[in-house]
Amino acid sequence: MTKSGKYEYGFQVTGIVRFILVLLITITMNGLLNSCKSNGSKTEKTVKSRKSKSGQIYQWTESEGKEFLSQMRQSNPTPEAWEKRAGHIHKQILQATDLYPLPERCPLNPIYGKKRMYDGYQVENVAFESLPGVYVTGSLYRPTETEGLPPGILSPHGHWPKKEDYGRYRPDVQKRCAAMARMGAIVFSYDMVGYGQLGELGWQHEHPETMKLQLWNSIRSVDFLLSTGVNPNRIACTGASGGGTQTFLLAAVDSRIYVSVPVVMVSYRHFGGCICFLSVCPLLWPGCRGRDSGIPKRYTGKTVSDCEYQ
């Protein structure tokens, strides 16, 4: 990154480049699968010993994975059953975050900062109201040239150990957003509660209402993205760590998300380590029934054995 804030990693993502990337990923995955098959019992024995400090298995053997997937298929054997289950999860997430029914949408009243022009894309700081007087802050990346209605992508960020690594200004986050803008998408990278400009405004991240406000901010970020002229049928969301959590929660409650790519975050056996994930425990973790998830009692006042999967 240069002193001017511009990333100088010039490349052109063409159809042939994308094809090569997909081919390399496919070859790599096939090699890994073949390696697992050839190692047989040795692989199973090694993987089975990988447990967290609380005794939970965080990496299953191939046979354990197949058994679990079989159970999941039996629980929702038809597309109709999946749709019914999705509707149930949709409602429960909104109820757990105290967003059911959804609040009334106020005008966004967006505020745009100065445009910064780079090679193939431009960036501007943005703020808009998710609630009257409550602002969402972020960076809006646009391609310098577009054909037709561009796709829109939301980019929620995650947590990192060092304060200077937090948020939407991480170099890897900026590079990802810039790359997608150069490929033709309008990308909105926005602050989680207590981070970036929201932190400067005095918001605290570790608060019992964080999950509620962050999810509502994400829903309103879809509204904002649509106001920029993107294709309403080509809306995506992707983020890592806490951004991965925001991605799958948003996709579960907002049908306008057509592509969802959550990366490395909570599962039904992994809490995540932050109060901003608490509301999903009783709803998304079939494995939390009576198990120790490692959720600090200072956050909950009770153990996960009180959480019952519905």
Automatic annotation (TrEMBL):
Segments crossing the lipid bilayer: 12-33
Secretion signal span:
none
Q: Which UniProt keywords apply?
A: Membrane, Transmembrane, Transmembrane helix
- Coiled coil ranges (UniProt) are none
Q: Does the keyword Metal-binding apply?
A: no
Q: What is the name of this protein?
A: Acetyl xylan esterase domain-containing protein
Organism of derivation: marine sediment metagenome
